[in-house]
Amino acid sequence: MTDLTDLTVAEIRDGFRAGDFSAREVAEGFNANVAAARALNAFIVETPDKALEAADAADKAKAAGETLGALAGVPIGMKDLFCTEGTQTTAASHMLEGFVPTYESTVSGKLWAAGAGMLGKLNLDQFAMGSSNETSYFGNVISPWRRGGGDNAALAPGGSSGGSSSAISARLCPAATGTDTGGSIRQPAAFTGISGIKPTYGRCSRWGIVAFASSLDQAGPMARTVRDNAILLEVMSGFDPKDSTSLDLAVPQWEAGLSSDLRGKTVGIPKEYRPDGLNAEISAMWDRGIAWLKDAGAEVVEVSLPHTKYALPTYYIIAPAEASSNLARYDGVRYGQRDLPDGAGLQDMYAATRAAGFGPEVKRRIMIGTYVLSAGFYDAYYTQAQKVRALIARDFEQAFEKCDLLLTPTAPSASFALGEKQADPLAMYLNDVFTVPASLAGLPAMAVPGGLDSAGLPIGLQIIGKALDEQTVLNASLAIEERAGFTARPEKWW
Amino acid sequence: MSIDLQTVKKIASLSRISVTDAEAEAMVPEINNILGWVEQLGEVDVTGVQPMTAVIPNHQRLRDDVITDGDVRDKVLANAPQAEHGFFAVPKVIE
Hints:
The structure holds two protein chains of two kinds. Chain A is an alpha/beta fold.
């Protein structure tokens, strides 16, 4: 019998419906994998009972001949940034340790309503701030991948959705939720050889997701195949009156619309994404991607996004500014930790609570955000950044007059060893150089694996589409997936 | 522009994060590095460019002015570090 934990979301869904196996067998298989993989530290909380409960409900519904939800029988992992009613939600911070929401985030609620079961809450960078999953209060997540040649260095699963990427590539769950503010779905997907899509800003409700930078935060799925991402994204998307930036649009049938025939499509190759000194293997993978898309029938043209080099510094003004405002809510009064030194007044309590509850990277970003928003500096930093952001968005608009989608690398390198980039925040920020521009412009973008580098580690490609055109993004990613034939998986050591 | 120890302490105070002198001193070069790097935005010509306000065009919706939520006091207080008599409790503010 096949190992059920090797199946994709589509295979589990279809096999369950066909009666090849029960939902309970699937949930038990993944629960066992989760329990046996604690060395990866991918989960902050495991919820095997929730997975079984959903599975039993699916089995019962099927036996009774009831209509089954789109994800009936499919267990998934939930990034611990989504509030889950009755299950601790921490954003991987000490600040929210012990916080048990009394409500459910819109996106997670949609997934449960579609029949999915929760295997657990996945580890991440603290408040989603990081690119290597080294800022979690609950410890680093370890990638299941290792370099070849007996090098057993613990590698970064990427961040901030590092628990999600590690768990999917290690077969602890067939799919998981992620959130992406500057690359937090796409870069971890690239590091672990899986796929993930950040939809157009406003497709997925932000309600009930612990906020980092509200004008950038978007939820999205992560899974091993493009089809699985389409299946999950359909369930996760949709208008929500509780999010003022939610788009009031019908959700397209992305799975039914999947086609890897790209005839009639034009792919733009942004020349600014190939700076001097770009890693040669990343560059070669990009060239292979161009050839694959041509093979799928697309025409390829060079385009220019002249403000690309300003995207990262723009991001590192806007994201911290929004974070400093959003994270002001952690005051030790309404929820989360409180640190009340002897004889302290209210202001001392705030300062002590926040000093004890936030990690160093979170403090750094709050302070930078506070500075760039402070009187006398607001225009020089924040207003200037919002103007440059408008120019970055305009670059994309102009490029999309000549093409339908863009192909770029996802990350400037393959995964690196934990600890390797921790000392220098700036070096860490550069990981997001290819993912941040699409975030600033609110565009849909997807990471898809392309192959392995010479050290045996996955490297990936990124497709960026026009606003609301997730279908073309998914289709081009599917064309790459079919041609790359990426079947590599980490050898089990955990 | 570069910031000094006093400025770092001021930002920490505005951020309501207590820092020791040693922590503040360690943050001076870190924050200066990052600010020095983002300052390259100053070289971009933004003449006539409006600052971005919404990344995807969207309109603010109006809804009927009716109560849609509420009556959940105990849920609101459920995660409070200290709740008393149906209120959040904080250290004494007025002497």
